[in-house]
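Support request, please re-run this one:
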Amino acid sequence: MRHRPFFRWVMTLGVLLFGWSAYLYASYPETRQIDLTVISEKPDGRCTVRWKDPYSDGGRWRATAYQCDPDRDALLKAPNYDEDTGYGWDSGFMFTEGRHKGDLEPSLEEKEPYGLSDALVLIGLALIAVGLIGGNTRASIRLTGVRPKTVARARKLYEIADQVARDHARARDAVRVTWNALRREQIDAKLSAVPVARLFKEAPVSQAVQDVQAAGARTARDVLDAGVPGLEHMGMDRSSAEHAHTAARLLADGIGATLSVRVDPVAPGPHTVALLVALQVLLEAGAEAHQTARAGEELAGELERVLTEAEPASGYLSMLRAGREQREIARSAVTELRSLMAIAEHEGHPARFTQTSVDLLRVPDDQNLGLSARADFESRTSQYYGLLAQVVDSLPGWVGDLQGRPPTTPSQH
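Re-run finished. Output below.
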């Protein structure tokens, strides 16, 4: 359920009422206190008063009905105040600006803007107080369970766990890429040794085949590179072009299925050097690199899920914005994060993850055609072939070293 900011709206309403009151007060005309002569007065305070208007021509006297203060001292009332005239005395306020300049301000007992302004002030202050107290109380309850440091530590652990898994996957991918390139190179070499004429069983070779040979497609490799459209462009009819291309494709598949790739460390090509360098990285990382990477991948997966649930607990603002159900899930997730981090630290995972990542990024010096990797391959050939078999899942046929010896049974890494 989404958070509803009830107290925030209460406080906002209080501020608006307070502002309205201030506006009424500021827009009310200025006044000054003056003496009033009470000409007549009733017991309930209703009276007729007279005052001098200094803003009129000649400062004339004015009279009007007014609500006097019935509780003022009896000495201020008629006829005690002035025995000669029988008038009483009271005070009031006269407008000194605006369109009512010189008029007498209504008495407090009558309806007037000041009363509305005062009421708005009281209501506004009450609402502001309710908003502040209720909002802070509610916020303090909502903020229980905020653990930014715990979430930050869990994120750091997730990063190093995910990093070691990605570093190991990158190292294995480098082996696969270089292995496929070397294998492709040797397949291409065999296809380049097969003339176009051998792709056709009929004899003698057709004129179309001779034309294609004359155009430059002399081997099965050339046929695969040209494709059916290219062969047609060279002068071969479509039926013969499709036959040649299909035969070349089947030949390539057959060679790939039975090819025994030889790693020649004495006269290696660039693909061989790259393969040996990639294999050496994994071998130098040690037999535990695979298990460490697997543990990092599993831990990263668990942390990613829990971190998503614990996201509201990562900061006070995000927790305030979360709904009740999200907050409960976040608090439970923080507890689970603590458990996962405690287990990981107890088993020494953070240090292992970091060290394995460093080992997997420690690329041997290949400036001299990978002399280090080539020498290492000759000293432990079987381990190289065993690791290669494990990384590429399965090897077609068997792979032999320079002397033609098959490798020993692949060891587990």
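The first strand starts at residue 31 and ends at 41. The chain has 13 helices and four strands.
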